[in-house]
Amino acid sequence: MTENKNTKVSAENLSLWYGPFQALKDIHICIKEKEITALIGPSGCGKSTFLRTLNRMNDLIPSVKTEGSLLIDNQDVNSPDIDVVALRKKVGMVFQSPNPFPMSIFDNVAYGPKIHGIRNKDELSHIVIKSLKKAALWDEVKGQLNKSALSLSGGQQQRLCIARVLAVEPEILLMDEPTSALDPISTLRIEELLQELKNQFTIVIVTHNMQQAARVSHVTGFFLTGELIEYDLTENIFTKPRNKKTEDYITGRFG
Amino acid sequence: MITKPKGKERIIYLFLVLSGYATLVILCSIIVYILLKGFSHISLEFITQTPRKMGAEGGIFPVIVGTFYFVTLTILIAAPLGIGAAIYLHEYTREGTITRIIRFGTELLAGIPSIIFGLFGYAFFVVLLGDITQGWSLLSGALTATCMILPTIIRTSEEALKTVSRSLREASLALGATRWQTIYKVVLPSSLPGILTGIILGIGRAVGETAALLLTLGGSLLMPQSLFHGTRTLSMHLYMVAMETGNMDAAYATGVILIIIVLLINFIANYGIKRLVTRNTTTTARS
Amino acid sequence: MNTTLNNNTLKKEKLNSGLALPKVTEAIVRPILFAAAVTAVIIIILIGFFILQKGWPVLSTYGLWNMISGTVWQPTKELYGILPMITGTFYITFIALVIGIPFGLATAIYLAEIAGSKTAALIRPAIELLAAIPSVIYGLFGMVVINALMRHLQRGLLSGILPPDYQLGYSVLSGGIVLSIMILPTIINIVEDALKAVPHTYKEAAFALGSTHIQTIFKVLIPAAKSGIVSAVMLAMGRAIGETMALIMVIGNVTALPEHGLLSLFAPSSSLTATIALEMGYAGPEHQAALFAVGIVLFGIIALLNAFVIVFTRRGGQQQL
Fold first, then answer.
1. Given A82, A178, B17, B225, which residue has the most CB atoms within 10 angstroms?
2. How far apart are CA C215 and CA C192, in angstroms?
3. pLDDT tens digits for C140-158?
4. Total domains in the fold of chain B
């Protein structure tokens, strides 16, 4: 299955420093398109840092230095030729705590298309409805698009954030512990949503919840202190890990 | 429960409590006294007529107009400058030598006495740039007042920008927005209440300012025809009438209007903005 | 509408028109905002430059020492002695601090430690309002109420011991009283913040050892908040030294050195700020230059004071645990 798909993201010798501290050490990884890849590991192991290299959100931090190559669709993400704005349109991100803008539901979802130049009201409406449907939120908000986004529940807000990202039509979805702030029922709904979305998008999800990684992903990568220790089919990682450190983490001996 | 003090300590305790109430009493005495003394001289004629005999008689209409023009012009200059500076400091740079120099300069500016601003305003705006500002004029006065209220606006605007969570900025940038788009569409709208409060406080300071304006606005009692004409503000008029004409009634009446305006400004800044905020933001999500 | 972007659009050269304007705006906006940010620095430099430029001629030809020690101020005769004004400024400031510090401290303690939330909710806005009241209103109040009371006192109780020119109401004491009210908000706010910043653990330890509330306040909290209190006093002092309008209306503006020892409390006086404000209106060019020189002296005093505050708070901060 994985073997037939194209590589969407590939990193080679990728290293990253925050000042003197090396957060990523020589990462080699190949992420295939249109499937869900999970990244697991204890706090501070670098999985979120790696995720953020994919849409260059680390640029926001001063004193960050990157070495090595990171290719998306065979284009070097860190090359000076790259238009970061276009990159972030192509690689969307959903954050750990839902962070809708203090605007209406409609304006939240329409924000992305608007800043990318779409002004036509009908077109915007069409995009908003389509995105809300894809994020499985439409039925719950359909009469109330003018309501403030902050009036939604936590799970709904996170699905709104997903809709907001979908509205700019990315190809890759980065999810940084998207359900860690949500209750179990909302978590389950979002996990179901991810299964539907994977047919259209490449999804990389960082999670500290191993059961979630096992439920949701096809491939899993285990990070520890900045290194990618093991990267394999999810069922292999969780049933017959090859590296002892992976086994220790999965069986709960640390982390 | 903290036990009440006994013996000698009671006296100290009493002094502390009385002190606390004393501030309230002092404030009320000042305001009430001026209101009482001046109220009887306030009338529609007073507000709408022009002054005679250097303000000893007649009304204060040009002064009210002058105050209004002056404040408006000052804010039109100071607000964009101050908010822009705050945006630069908070959104576009990290803490380093440049920001430290800018902040130090702003702190220094905040500590300068108003009469020094008056001397500066006179030397720079009235005399040196006299060809542009036409000497003593609304423009010179407003520029001088801008220098004075700039630190306040920068400080309150920065505080307001800080209240917007980092997560919102990240969400916007992650969608592909530029930094300015993020500021303009997400950060500024959210921080507007705090910024407005700072502006209103700046207005309050400008209204109450006198020393610097005596040297830059001119003090003319005529209706200002343009921003190149001189004028006087309510606080200047109060001073000049009290010291030069000895007509304390006119001084009291002017004082009443001045106090009412200051109270209004203070009320709007502290309560009006807050109510605006709580009405517009709905509750955050329950999970 | 494209459903998928192809690889080429990542490159900078292929911008579609929807993306061009924000980037142009971004490039323009940053320098504009930078210009706004450095305005404050530019203004400070300009102020320093112009005050120096206009006042330096008199300062250098007449001599700083001569100015500061000279007791006669008569610009028409080219006598620029500002000792009376300096004395007046500091004398009045001293009185203001003597009255204001105890009351300010007490109120701050009351607000931080004793007042219930409802009372505090009443008193804090009052303090803010006190700070917002224009100085001319204080001047007016001082002129008609405090000076009147002073006159009563001077012509009544004290008429035996005061020379006639000390019985006009205008006095150092009036100035000090008015100023003390004006600096109260500064003292109260900073001291209250300093008291609130003292770690709870100090208070708890004191109570656990059996201290009363008052003992805790005066033996633990106040010493711990010492540097904040000193900052408050210095900032209040700076404010008092720089105050102009309220003083003009209350102290009489007589440029003479105070005499008669303690009775000088009731003497009319002058201040650096009042002299500048009153005489700029009608001064000729040399006179104006002299006034700018007075401005330099004033600026210097305030700058020294602020430098003390900065040095002191930094050192005080390092000494704290």
1. A178
2. 18
3. 999 999 988 888 888 887 7
4. 1
Q: Taking CB atoms and an 8 Å limit, are B20 and C123 in contact across chains?
A: yes
Residue type, B145: A
Pick the residue from chain A with its C-alpha nearest to C9: A86
Q: Do B85 and C54 touch (CB under 8 A)?
A: no
When pLDDT is cut at 50, 70 and 90, the band that residue B270 belongs to is: confident
B74 interfacial to chain C (CB closer than 8 Å) = no
Residue B213 falls inside a structural domain: yes
- For residue C29, list chain B residues with Cβ-Cβ distance below 8 A: 180
CATH of the domain at B72: 1.10.3720.10
Could you say which of A97, A115, A150 has the minimum Cβ distance to residue B177?
A115
* Residue B96 contacts A, CB cutoff 8 Å: no
| Residue B20 in domain | no
Q: Is B154 on the interface with C (CB under 8 A)?
A: yes
Picking from C250, C287, C296, the residue whose alpha carbon sits closest to that of residue C270 is: C250
B9 contacts chain C (CB < 8 A): yes
Q: Do A116 and B186 touch (CB under 8 A)?
A: no
Rounded to two decimals, the ipTM of the complex is 0.89
Q: Give whole-number Cα distances, C167 to A214, B248, C138, C143, C162, in Å.
A: 93, 21, 21, 14, 7
Tens-place pLDDT, residues C158-200? 777 777 777 788 889 999 999 999 999 999 999 999 999 998 8
Q: Are A202 and A33 in contact (CB under 8 A)?
A: yes
Chains contacting C (3 or more CB pairs within 8 Å): A, B
Q: What is each CA distance from C94 to A130, B27, C91, C177, in whole angstroms?
A: 73, 22, 5, 11
| Token pair of A120 as six digits | 């036509």
Residue type, A246: T
Residue B24 near chain C (CB below 8 Å): yes
Give the span between the Cα atoms of B218 and B226, in whole angstroms. Answer: 14
Boundaries of domain holding B102: 44-286
Asked if the C-beta of C19 comes within 8 angstroms of chain A's C-beta atoms, the answer is yes
Contact B51, B58 (CB under 8 A): yes
Number of neighbours of residue B164 by Cβ within 10 angstroms? 21
